[in-house]
Design a protein that fits this description.
449 residues; mainly alpha; Growth Hormone, Chain: A; 21 helices; disordered C terminus; symporter activity; transmembrane helix; cell membrane; transmembrane
């Protein structure tokens, strides 16, 4: 018989009486984290939005769908580096501090994104072009593998005990805002440049514009204060020299359950953010401008839904919101793709917003739940490893599998199946292994999520 994990055992965050509310220090920390998170996902958004262009420039083929498959395979390589980044940055954050890890992560991401903007294409250097593309994606994956777990943990450790859901949701909110910025820039390119100009040199502009974001993120993160919980743990000599080994040895069940939650979140978010922009263009047949406009509108709506679900997690608990997210991941993909398949701007926007609802619910509730599964001394390692491995397996493969399912079956609705399976499995994990009254910050035991 399975046993439910009392999530948050050893979760020693101070009570809300001990933690300052919305101080200038907290606001500055939120902005610093937001800039870095935004940069991390800004790149993923522009890579996804420019997939039809990149696929032809780096993987020239007579079959557009095959070229897209090759590009999504490169995209998956970045995800496969996330567990490596989670291990590296997890140890760095749990031993040296959250601040140091965030500075290194934003620097690596910014440099590799700028590098993407200067890589010669296949017609110029042949096979070296996709090789350099893969290398850049590997370093980006390494960085993202450490960024999200570190930054979300940092925010939650700064949060008042009755607002951990909202603070954790800001990690995904800022990431999605970065996506909106990336999509907007690609939309502007398509609005004011000809397709030939974009294919020739215009596609490089969004990657090169990440440089000022890198400088700003680096500057702000250098000036931010360290997490108060990490400082307390370090003072008490509660930190470990090998937090990664410790988390695997003492908290392996928490890692597995967290990965089970990542499963539904990753399949849904990767399908919406990475697969759909290309799907709407290459499968549904909307023009690049209309397709990008639909993605931009839907994603802008989504960023506010994330904060809304973070607030609901504080009010009703993370467990009920995670259950809701899982159920909606099962129920909404097929009708959403049917609406998108109508082939016009309005239905495309509506269909994407529908699919964004479970993604926003996961993004609003899951960070606080994941952080609560691990004590301070191994929190970033545990959070990051679960998120890194989960996204590497399920998010990295989602665009490729979704495209492959269409090619295999000839059915444009086939990608819905992947999301349905992911949501169903996550629902089973939550109902079977996650217990508690679902409230964040109620009492001192840290038992409930």
């Amino acid at each position: 018989m399975s046993q439910s994990l009392p999530l948050g055992a050893g979760y020693n965050m101070p009570s809300k009486e001990e933690r300052p509310r919305d101080s200038f220090l907290n606001r500055r920390s939120i902005i610093a984290v937001g800039i870095g998170n935004g940069l991390e996902f800004y790149d993923f958004a522009i890579f996804a939005a420019l997939t039809p262009v990149i696929s032809q420039l780096f993987f020239p083929s007579g079959d557009p769908l095959s070229a897209v498959l090759s590009t999504f395979a490169v995209f998956a390589v970045g995800f496969l580096m996330r567990p490596v980044g989670a291990v590296f940055f997890g140890r760095l954050a749990d031993v040296r501090g959250r601040k140091v890890a965030m500075i290194v992560a934003v620097t690596v991401m910014g440099a590799s994104t700028v590098f993407l903007g200067v890589i010669p294409v296949y017609a110029q250097i042949g096979i070296w072009a996709p090789i350099f593309l893969v290398i850049a994606r590997m370093f980006q994956g390494l960085s993202v593998g450490g960024e999200f777990g570190t930054s979300a943990t940092f925010l939650i450790e700064f949060a008042p005990s009755n607002r951990r859901g909202l603070y954790g949701a800001f990690a995904f909110f800022s990431a999605t805002a970065g996506s909106v910025l990336g999509i907007f820039l690609v939309f502007v390119l398509n609005l004011f440049m000809s397709p030939d100009s974009i294919d020739s040199w215009g596609w490089r502009i969004p990657f090169l514009l990440s440089f000022p974001l890198l400088v700003l993120g680096f500057y702000l993160r250098q000036r931010v204060a360290e997490s108060p919980e990490f400082q307390e743990a370090k003072t008490e000599e509660a930190h470990l020299k090998s937090p990664v080994l410790t988390v695997f040895k003492e908290h392996w069940r928490g890692i597995l359950i967290a990965i089970g939650i990542v499963l539904g979140f990753a399949t849904a978010s990767s399908t919406v953010q990475v697969f759909l922009p290309s799907y709407i263009r290459t499968v549904i047949g909307l023009s690049p401008r209309v397709a990008l406009a639909s993605v931009l509108i839907a994603t802008t709506v989504a960023i506010f839904m994330v904060l809304g679900f973070g607030h609901l997690a504080d009010r009703y608990g993370t467990r009920p919101i995670l259950v809701l997210a899982s159920v909606l991941t099962v129920a909404l993909p097929y009708p959403s793709l049917m609406v998108i398949g109508l082939g016009e701007l309005g239905p495309a926007v509506l269909g994407q917003i529908i699919l964004w609802i479970p993604v926003a619910a996961f993004g609003g509730a899951a960070p606080a739940a994941w952080a609560k599964m691990f004590p301070t001394r191994v929190r970033v390692s545990g959070f990051g490893i679960a998120y890194g491995f989960g996204t590497a397996i399920f998010a990295g493969s989602a665009p490729f599998i979704a495209t492959w399912l269409i090619e295999l079956t000839g059915n444009d609705m086939a990608p819905a199946w992947y999301m349905v399976v992911g949501g169903a499995l996550t629902l089973v994990v939550i109902l079977t292994f996650v217990k508690g009254n679902g409230h964040i910050g109620r009492g001192s035991s840290g038992r409930a999520i």
